[in-house]
Here is the input.
Amino acid sequence: MKKKSFAEAECPIARALDVVGDWWSLQIVRDALRGVRRFTDFAQGLGVAKNILADRLKRLVGAGILQVVPASDGSAYNEYVLTAKGRDLWVLLVALRQWSDRWIPGANEYGQVLVDAQNGEPVAPLELHASDGRKLDLTDLRLVASASTRAKSA
Here is the structure.
């Protein structure tokens, strides 16, 4: 069954999922955030079939999340490095991890904790805050037409 594309969807969440919405892509980004750069290292760490890995890497490069660069050791190989667009996905991955630790039985029992590198303390749960610093929950939010949308309809 062919995957439906959300590239032209009105919903920004659907558009984002079109780019990074399969499980291999986010795991590739996770590993790249940890410093993995070579195809063989991604393949070994993920246990994914090489054809699937090659496809996902190609898509992530095409989306501007990864870029291909010459190997850092001067060898003939290429490496994959995150772009600024790719590095910005770290917040999404932290949010997914924290959600999993809270709601998936046994997910937080594999012996790793996300800590602040400066003081070694566990990272606090992510929160959404208003521009004035207030903590927001779902009941504090609503979607409204953006200025550009209002201008188009006028």
